[in-house]
Specification:
homodimer; about 400 residues; 10 helices
Chain lengths: ~400, ~400
């Protein structure tokens, strides 16, 4: 919003218009946006503040921090209680129905805002925002292309990160540094409270079977009980795989890609399952286009898994994830989701990660993950890097 | 809770007892804990689940994930709606007053739980947990000692991370790798939505003045508008400082330490302000003991800042933080806080970070931060490492 780049401002307007259409559908007069991720979506920056978007006309941003900004559509405030007076000052009629981010703000934050705006109708801004964010604008798609390209560049360095005798975590922090050197922002965001992760996951050998409390595709014990996911300090041993699923957070839009590496000779079942994952991806790639049901895509993937007799290994063993793909964006788990009961249908400008994976006991994880853009008549793969199992030795 | 270590189990019981006393004070029958950080506090692990602690007697944990756990105090459930029946099965009387984490769970999560438990009284479990967590148990203090010792070991490597011509971020990812190699868990937790950060902050030169939307002691522009904090890619130049404030997350308990490095010759004002910070720390160290007001400690620090004529530089320039210290623990911003209007008083087994800092325009940040344990009759410094400005060249 403080940027003077006209293309970017036009892109922001596309997002405001998309949200305003959804506000109108909800008979809402306005939404008030408070969370960092949604402020970034609607303004292009992070603030401690409140973005007020009416169903028609121009939005206004009320901020506490950072200091020192001067812009006609930005005003300073000290506390949320000033919002009604400030809105009136700026010429807004106070809303009769206001949407708040009720799946993201805490109970007490929402109660405070409700006490400020009083006895009016309230609705859920989170679902509106998640719906709007499900399809991406041209600028957002451009950001994905940058992330995906840099992620592929980073993945080229993985082989060089390996030295014999390494543990999974030693391998991981070598690769983390390569990612940072290429401009990885480090942190990335997830929606909801069911995931904590640091940059991504590297799984080798038996650790790939360890169930996690989190809602990721695969688990792993992690380094410590306080962050039970991914690498657990296992030695990378001959006859095992190393699955690398480290986020492409080179812009705020996260590309998602997984590749499998191996040490020594793998058993036949590992290659069979890996090839099944590639076939599932191929089948999805051929059929995915606007209008296709995400549930159908899951079910077709699962049918191929069953046909190959691999269900016991699909998306884990002891604990199996019930999805094979998910939308990506400012958060790693956006809409749509590819589950047996998903209600979404593909439409142009959605961006999603598709990740058929198998866990082979004592060997490790195999499979593939790529990021795809839904086009007018099909899909385009954004994360381009070799997909066979890559030997480390 | 699944650990068989008797010392650890005894320590968990201390925490349950502390919480039960607070539940009793609130006339509450029970609290239901859902967030990862509070589940780790009460059980020693992370689950997707619900920890039910009655005001008297034994708690029970109901989990969805991870799979494969067998323990007399743990049951599996599929959804929260089963909780009342499962509680009755386990012999609990359903609560008449139940505390929920209303400053941490989303509005919709709390509303769902309220619809499950029906028309009873509800209260705030977050404030009870933050109060309980403010003083640490023997096991928790042991974890801090491990974190602080490893953090000091990591800080010894900082000088070796520097090579002439480096930018702040190049310097940072060299140091990040050293931290990871020493066992840094990577992610660490903050309370509330006013902070996003990746491992910590490195500030050099003019970037130290850049105001941030977040609630950290100092700002910095960051690498990208989506994460506006810390290093921004500035070249480390002669005549400037480099302030390193990277978290000691070597256990789930985060020690906090800041040190200042320099390149070339600094102006007199930088040393004057740095020495003032050390004097403020010394003054605090002499007076801090159980019973002391945290507001008084802030005000005494600020009096010394004014006496030295350094108020314009204290805790920032364009934007100045209004605190000089904060509790640490499983989150980087626990209680107590050291602000002009803080209501807390020191008591034994509190652990806090004290961070008098100054920003000198065009030079960078100076000052110091250490982690302290409140003992029976004073305080003990946990983060032991030289405190003068350390030349990189």
């Amino acid at each position: 919003m403080t940027s003077n780049d006209q293309t970017f401002l036009q892109d922001l307007r596309l997002r405001w218009n998309k949200l305003q259409l959804l506000l109108n559908e909800q008979n809402a007069d306005a939404c008030l946006i408070v969370t960092g991720v949604n402020l970034y979506y609607t303004t292009g920056a992070i603030y401690t503040g409140y973005f007020y978007l009416p169903v028609e006309g121009e939005p206004h941003l009320f901020i506490r921090r950072p200091a020192g900004i001067s812009h006609p559509q930005i005003s300073y405030l000290k506390k949320a209680e000033q919002l009604p007076d400030l809105l009136k000052e700026k010429g807004f009629t106070l809303p009769q129905k206001l949407l708040l981010e009720t799946d993201e703000l805490t109970y007490n934050e929402v109660m405070r805002l409700c006490s400020i705006f009083g006895d009016i109708q309230y609705g859920n801004a989170t679902s509106v925002l998640r719906h709007a964010r499900m399809t991406k604008t041209p600028w957002e798609i451009g950001q994905f292309r940058i992330s995906a390209q840099k992620q592929a560049q980073a993945y080229k360095k993985i082989k060089d990160c390996y030295r014999p005798g390494m543990t999974d975590i030693e391998f991981q922090y070598e690769f983390e540094k390569e990612c940072r050197a290429l401009g990885s922002l480090g942190i990335f965001r997830g929606f909801g409270s069911s995931m904590d992760i640091f940059m991504g996951s590297i799984l080798t050998g038996e650790n790939a079977e360890t169930p996690s409390p989190y809602d990721f595709a695969l688990g792993g014990g992690g380094l410590h009980p306080s962050i039970p996911i991914g690498a657990n300090g296992s030695l990378i041993r001959k006859g095992t795989t190393v699955m690398v699923d480290v986020a492409g957070n080179f812009t705020a839009y996260i590309s998602d890609m997984t590749r499998v590496f191996s040490l020594g000779t793998l058993p036949y079942i590992a290659f069979k399952a890996h090839n099944a994952a590639l076939s599932i991806q191929e089948q999805m790639f051929k059929s995915a286009r606007p209008g296709r049901s995400c549930a159908d895509i899951y079910n077709e993937a699962y049918a191929l898994v069953e046909q190959e007799g691999l269900s016991a290994y699909f998306m884990g063993t002891i604990q199996q994830a019930k999805f094979v793909g998910h939308g990506i964006g400012l958060q790693i788990n956006e809409l749509p989701v590819f589950t047996p009961r998903s209600k979404e249908f593909l439409s142009p400008n959605m961006v999603f990660a598709f990740e058929p994976k198998f866990v082979i006991p004592k060997v490790g994880a195999v499979g593939v993950e790529n990021s795809f853009l839904v086009t007018e008549d099909g899909i385009e793969k954004l994360t381009l890097f070799e997909e066979e199992i890559i030997p480390l030795d």
